[in-house]
Structures are given as structure tokens and as C-alpha cells.
Amino acid sequence: MEKDTNKKHIKFDTSVQILKYEVLKRVAENAFNDTLDKNILSIAKEVVDDLNPNVRCCIYKERAIVQERIKVALGGDKLNDNVIEVIDIACDECSINRFIVTNACRGCLAKKCQESCRFGAISFDSKKSKIDYSKCKECGKCKEACPYDAIAEVRRPCMKSCYPKALSYNTESKKAVIDNNKCIQCGACVINCPFGAIMDKSSIVDVINLIKDNSKKVYAIIAPAIASQFKGNHINKVITAIKTLGFDDILEVALGADLVALHEFNEFANYGEESFLTSSCCPSFVSFIEKKFPMLKDNISNTVSPMIAIARLIKKNDENSNIVFIGPCIAKKMEILREEIKGEVNYVMTFEELLAMLDAKDICIDKCVDGMSENGSLYGRMFARSGGVLEAIKHVVNEYGQDIYFNPQSANGIKECDAKLMQAKFKRIQCNFLEGMICTGGCINGPGTLNHDIKNNKEVDIYGKESDYQNIKDSTEKYNDLMLNLKKYKDR
Description:
Blueprint: H1 15-32, H2 36-39, H3 43-47, H4 59-73, E1 84-86, E2 99-101, H5 112-116, E3 122-125, E4 128-131, H6 141-145, E5 151-153, H7 157-161, E6 167-169, E7 176-178, H8 188-192, E8 198-200, H9 204-212, E9 218-222, H10 235-244, E10 249-252, H11 253-271, E11 277-278, H12 283-292, H13 306-317, E12 322-327, H14 331-335, E13 347-350, H15 351-360, H16 378-381, H17 388-400, E14 408-412, H18 414-425, E15 433-437, H19 456-465, H20 472-476
Parallel strand pairs: 9-10, 9-12, 11-15, 12-13, 14-15
Antiparallel strand pairs: 1-8, 2-5, 3-4, 6-7
């Protein structure tokens, strides 16, 4: 069988993704073949096999960077609680100064830039302003003071993309630094670093070992955003391909979304129409509220995410099972470590990691026969895009709660989330339920996706319409007697 068959059908957004794929695939190959310990040192040479370097100064540095990528693929720094970490050796091409003097400088008489600098970093050379970077503290006062806007700010791509301002850099080493107290694991820095110097830790080897261990059943639960990823292949073929990896069964997280929509509706009905409630399915959104808007923590729905809902459904029938979530989200890797739900899902994999595993095993999706999984409804599948949660709960309100005043709004992307939550903070928001999605467009644009095509939302809608169930009542009816507990916190 031809190598990397599935990769050939994927249009990656960047070459960084390709490099990440190559590392993950080779790690997975060796993990499946039990040769990881033997070949761990040769993987970097396989990935960087050219005589001339592609980007760095020499092939030896490129291989050293790949070696660090391998460490992250093996789980990364165990002392770092964050699932996102900086590869220091790869973070050396942005050693640029934050403020630079442009040709717009007129060397004016006022010299406001010099007067504004408290550190004596501004001088004049041939009538032009000059910055002494050994003294500059990057406070930005010179830029603010210049009447010609002649001092420009050059921001690092990672810092520019980090809305919560969790990213800074060491002024001496110039290496990026993540403040774990501010980081919400949205993954914006991961996909925006042009050199791939920031990466999410992988559990790909742990998942493979779990599959190879036959002591317990291993279930894969797939996020509905998967419908937008392996284009040209029907989702039923993808399900078979995943099962061929060694999973005992596959279930749709969309079914968990249906259960969440019902539970969230009941929670809203009991909460009170005059109150304000937010969704809880996006872990980055939840984390954003907890870290920037702690006064709104009690307004977060106490309903678990669809991932946890479907995991609890599985555990009802098979309490000794192992569960692996496959989706587009890096923050899910952090969610499963939260104390209130720890142990319910064993590992989280992204679509990037899934592709690497499939190609590592030479499993060609388009050669697979159609498989089946436990279906979620049309509405459960639409959780993958912005507005989907809102539409699902609206549907439930129309079905079960005609007398309930439900006035929802959605926040699409972190900037909208921030604006809406700021309104809520000051009690100026004009709704009683807020759906928040940190990734613009929803889960279909998560950092662990293979591409960020603007048509992905249409793919999800098509996937939804193909469901066996066009309403939530029908998809969840058989589980009504299970008495599933879908509360996140028992005391709320």
C-alpha cells in the first residue's frame, strides 16, 4: 500500500503542520511496532534528511529541533501543567526588537520621543531618532509621543494572536514565555507561530499502548467537527478507519451534545428566566470566564460538556472501559485534567494526531467500507459550529418548554466572547443565555484541525442532515431510563 495515502488528500494550512505530522507519524509507527526505544534517536534524521537545511542555519540544528518536537510528541515536560509548551531551541527567529524607528522620523526639534523615555534609551544620530536596545524596556512611551508615528511596534505573531495576553518573552533570551495563570489553551499561538515553536503535548503513544492492551475495551468518541476534515471520504468510512486502528467501538460526541442540550434546558428552566446563564461545552470559554471574569463563574452552566456526557453514557454500560476523545480542540486535553471530571476520559487526541496514526498503520480511508456508530441528532452534530448550541437548546425549548422565555445570544470568537462577557459583568447584556465559542466559527476551526476552510460549516450542516434523527427527542429516547448524572459539580 502506498505510504501517507490519507495525507495526500489533505490540504494543510502550513508547512509547520506537515512537519508536526511527520514527527507524530514516525513516533506512532514505532509505537505500533514496539521499536520506539530502539529508533527514537534516528527519527530526527529521517525527518531532516537533506544535505542542506530548509530554514535553519544547518541540518544539525534542524534535527535538534525535531528531537525536541519528539519529546513533546511523547508527552512533553511533565513538570509543566500546561498542555501547551514552548520549544525553546525553535524560538530563536523572532529575536527582534519590539519598537523600531522608521524613515518617517524627521529628527524634529521637539524630541518628544526622547523626553518621554524614562530609561535614557533615545538619542539622535544625524538628526534621526535612535533606540539603544540595551536600555530600552519596551514600555512604548516613545511610540505614543512621536507626532509623526515614526516609531513602529513590531509584535511577535504568537503574542499578537494571544488575546488573553498569556504570552510574553524573556527580555534576555528573547524566548517566548507562557503565563499558565492566563493561558486558556485556545491554541492560537500554536497555529500562528510561523516556526512551530509552540506545540501541544501529545498522548499518541499512550493511546497506542492503550489500544494494544487487551485488558479493557477502548472506545473512541469523535467530535462532530470531524465531518469537515477528511473531505472526499464519507464519515462512515472514517469511522471504519478509526475502528481499524484497534478501537473496540466508536460513538459520536453529537449524541452527548443532545443529552447536554436537554440537561442544559432543564437547568435553565430551574435557574430562572430573569437570570443569566452561559454555555459550558467550550473548555477555553469556561477557562476564559474563570480567569478574566471570575465574578461570572456561577453563571456558567453546571452541565458537563458533550465529551463528558457521552463518556458517562459509556461508563453506565461498561464502567471499566477506557475512552479516547478525538476532536479539533487542544483545550480538551486540559479539560480532562480538571478535578471535578478527572478520570472520565483517559486521553484526548486531535485530528492532526488521528491522521498521523492512520498513516502510521497504512490505513487508507477511501479503501474502507462504511461503518456505523451511535448517531447524534441533526442538532447535536451542529454543536461543531458557532450557533449550534443555541439552535439545539432553542429546539428543546420549542419541544418541551413553550412557556419558557428563552432569549439567547451567541458569541463567535474570543473578541465577541470578551465583549459579551464585559456586558454581563456590568449587567448590561440583553439576553438570558449566552453561547460562547472561543474559536471563530466554532469547533470546526479548532487548533487541532487539519485545515480551516471557510466551507467547513457547510460540511457540518450536511453531516447533520444525514443523521438518522432530525430531533433530539428521538436520539435520546432510549437513554431516558438510565438516570445519567450530567452535573459538573455535585453541590450546584
